[in-house]
Amino acid sequence: MKAWIYRNLLPPLLVRVLTRGQRRREEVENFRGLYSQFVSQGDLCFDIGANLGNRVRCFRALGCRVIAVEPQSRCVRQLQREFGADPQVTIEPMAAGASPGTATLRTSPMHVLSTISPEFVEKTRQSGRFAAVSWTGTEEVGVTTLDALVAKHGEPRFVKIDVEGFESEVLAGLSKPLSAFSFEWTPEIPGNAVSCIRKLEALGSYEFNYSWGESMRLSRAQWLSADAMIRVVEEFVGESQNFGDIYARLVSTP
């Protein structure tokens, strides 16, 4: 029986393990070129909406310390399994928002689409991009703020925010400029991206860039002003295939 298991079951299992490992290595290498423009070894990063940790993996490969903020219980369990023994990763099992408290997280079988934002659910269904997706579960989750995270863990060099339409609420919980950010851009709810840009503009002098989808490449050789970035957002309103991330870096403070 043991010989049969070795011959018939172990090879496919090993292939899956090796394939997953190879995918993760390729993913890290893909991300490295982008994030190395913002961070280097020893820097502190906040990963707001850490999900299963693909950005945590990348930041750690660059030698960064990471605060992984994630409210979904199943994702938190995976983060704890993979990073729980790493002293350079701190897992905060909660959401981030405008003020501390609690919120209702609408969960989906597609864990990357779980959200606190009812508008995200409604608008992406209407556009057809996620028409077949269900958000049938809920979790009551704790909410912290960026200000509280900075007070607890220190000032990060980079803050990545990917929380399915709740990005502007996350930035609403920040009262001081930080060095650099990325936040998800959902074309069905352009007001969310505009609010994020205006919030950062109010905190300091930022310049902006963007990447499409998961390309992990900045689209502009020259960085844009806040107004120019908003014009880009407005140009693609409703074009649900054109989603991505907006990047911001601090030039100076008021």
- Helix proportion: 25-40%
Question: What is the string of helix and strand elements?
Answer: HHEHEHEEEHEHEHEHEHE
User: Rg to the nearest angstrom?
Assistant: 19 Å
> Quick one: CATH superfamily?
Vaccinia Virus protein VP39
* DSSP strand count: 10
Structural domains: how many: 1
The oligomeric state is single chain
**Which structural class best describes the helix and strand composition?**
alpha/beta
Mean pLDDT: 90
Determine the N-to-C terminus distance.
Answer: 73 Å
CATH class: Alpha Beta
Question: Strand arrangement, largest sheet?
Answer: 3-2-1-7-8-10-9
The profile of the biggest β sheet is: 7 strands, mixed
Strand content: 15-25%
Residue windows where pLDDT falls under 50 for at least 5 positions: 1-6
What can you see in these coordinates?
The protein is of the alpha/beta class and 254 residues long. The chain has a single domain (26-252), classed as Rossmann fold (3-Layer(aba) Sandwich), CATH 3.40.50.150. The chain is 39% helix and 23% strand. The chain contains 9 helices and 10 strands. Strands 3-2-1-7-8-10-9 form a 7-stranded mixed β-sheet, with helices on both faces. Strands 4-6-5 form a 3-stranded mixed β-sheet. Helix 7 (167-172) links the parallel strand 7 and strand 8 (180-185). Helix 2 (10-35) packs across helix 3 and helix 8 (190-203) runs antiparallel to helix 9. The relative contact order is 0.13. It comes from Luteolibacter rhizosphaerae. This is FkbM family methyltransferase.
